[in-house]
Specification:
By secondary structure, the chain is α/β, with parallel strands linked by helices. About 30% of the residues lie in helices and about 25% in strands. The strands form 7 sheets. A 7-stranded mixed β-sheet has the order 15-16-17-14-13-18-19, with helices on both faces. Strands 10-9-8-11-12 form a 5-stranded parallel β-sheet, sandwiched between helices. Strands 23-25-26-27-24 form a 5-stranded antiparallel β-sheet, with helices on one face. Strand 20 and strand 21 (about 495) form a beta hairpin. Helix 2 (about 70-85) packs antiparallel against helix 4 and helix 13 (about 420-430) runs parallel beside helix 14 (about 445-455). Bound molecules: NADPH dihydro-nicotinamide-adenine-dinucleotide phosphate. Keywords: Oxidoreductase. Pfam families: Aldedh, MaoC_dehydratas. This is Phenylacetic acid degradation bifunctional protein PaaZ.
Amino acid sequence: MNVMANRPRRLESYVCGRWVAGAKDGVPLLDAATGAPVAFIDSTGIDFKAVLAYGREKAGPALRRLSFHERAAMLKALGQALMERKEEFYALSTATGATRADSWIDIEGGIGTLLSYASKGRRELPNTRVLLDGEVETLSKDGSFSARHILSPLQGVAVHINAFNFPCWGMLEKIAPTLLAGVPTVVKPASQTAYLTELMVRRIVETGILPEGALQLVCGSVGDLLDHVEGQDAVTFTGSAATGRKLKTHRAIVDNSVRFTMEADSLNAAVLGLDAAPGTEEFDLFVREVAREMTAKAGQKCTAIRRVIAPRSCSEALIAGLRDRLGKTAIGNPADEAVRMGPLASLDQREEVRARIRDLSADAEIVAGDPDNPSVVSGDAMAGAFLNPVLLYCDRPAAARAVHDVEAFGPVSTVMPYDTAEEAVDLARRGKGSLVASVFTNDPGFAEEVVLGLAPFHGRVMIGNRASAKSSTGHGSPLPVLVHGGPGRAGGGEELGGMRGVKHYMQRTAVQGAPTLLSAVTGRWVPGAEVRLDGEHPFRKSLAELRIGDQLVTATRTVTLEDIEHFAHFTGDTFYAHMDEAAAKANPFFDGRVAHGYLIVSFAAGLFVDPAPGPVLANYGVDNLRFLTPVNPGDTLGVTLTCKEINPRANAEHGEVRWDCNVTNQHGATVAQYDVLTMVAKTKG
Ligand code: NDP
């Protein structure tokens, strides 16, 4: 299908394996800058119960059959395919009011999020279908009963209800962790900009990369869909607090304890440090950042700075700096390359923002920007949803309410003065929980006091100063590796956050039982589980032959004083505990000179390594190394090496093998315990 940006068309939903138009003609969606119709939207007639069932029954099993690495490879292929088609998305994005720079956040930011999850999935997750959480908990004295936590994908669907401001990123940032977890999705974009989401979903479906039903799209109302959600489903919502509250208390969500994540109105603050007076680099960075946050996406960003908290002594200079910068912002039709700020998403949205500015005016005075007479460099100021950036000043913010409660979802911020660091924290906290706050300071003491004061009330806190000025990703950028979401009025939910986001769509279960059965269930050998000693050195086995529990018990080696002195002089580590008998004795941990920990690890390798070329390709590190009992001259060491986990890499001739390495002395006491990590060939070459 050739989707043209300039021909209004009826949007379709992609449900139950096909594209369907609503039964009615649909509500017109207008170009934000010109007012011309772009599309018509309607979802009447869709059987939403069937949509959920299709996702659960058709796509759920198909996704769960894939390993994390296979799902990650799928996301990567999808990200690459979308990136190749990005210009088509940019062309249509202009109708939403977005400039090229705004669209970059939405389109390439969204695709980048997919790719970031693909890469994290491959690097940080095992090539399995189940995740382990934490270590083995031994629950009996004789080791015959243990427990470990596992995470497995929910068997329902994740319904993602999104806001109008990020039609691409909003969808992609949510489906990436969901699909990586192995859970199908139903995406419902906000109507106003749904045409861009619809276009992207068309391109996704055309690639055929996702299992059928893994991504369904509803353009228009979700009707009675929420009546049919069940305990294995999850619902996420981004939008207004009022709608969020309604959905959060929806009967089926409450009755079935459906996981509900909300990201709603957020009164994000930026704090200028007491040290950051006019003339400092931090002051200039702050002015730039506040102006950027106010004008990017015309202020329609969930993370935009709404409250500007600055030392009273700097307020005047700050307002002057911002007024100057904002006044130079070229507003107009985003199709014009000279334009730096486009219109709001719709005329209704502009009326909404103007009404909220009137609410804010109860506490604050407008010090820059006329909300009623937009000055545009291109486009029709009446037909398009243009609005000048509006800066307000609230002189007594501790006594005010509206400035901490009202989110004007547009290019609008309020400057509020403070005198002490404590006061700055108090003002920021009056937002009752936000997605993000930033602190601009070069004073470590101020940073510590303010960041620790803000942290319990925010999902993310960014510190800006001269050292990170060039590399900083800025106040407003949610990054796939970091938590996006906030406590309190920001919704009390979390999105993104790397693997934290993935785990949200999985169930954590404590599995208790005998170690051998726990090993079988989790795919990772557990101390006390059965082992296999078949006489063949496990380093001679390829991945095809190696089994979890394959074990090697080595010969022993006695550590001499000469060994310790040789190692000390050879490496240069002549720490007194190895070299000075009297000083070592005086140390509360040792009874005379001891072997170096790294000497023990080196001798252990000398005991367990099989030297000839073979399937073991490389040693790439150790995990969780602990030295548990001192080794004195005359002690005799031996090693028990057990194959703990086998992780074949997709699309490679090798995989990772994790070995449990237990080094003991002549009394059987563990002197060192760690995991050895190796790369092993899949077959003997
Ligand atoms: P809404 O809360 O009206 O809508 C958000 C999403 O919920 C849309 O997809 C909408 O669909 C859907 N929705 C609305 N009602 C229902 C319902 N009864 N059942 C199921 N889904 C529903 O927010 P908007 O997107 O219109 O934005 C309005 C305001 O929200 C903004 O002005 C801003 O203040 C705030 N907002 C805050 C954000 C934040 O993260 N801080 C992000 C975006 C918005 P439809 O569009 O079809 O009605």
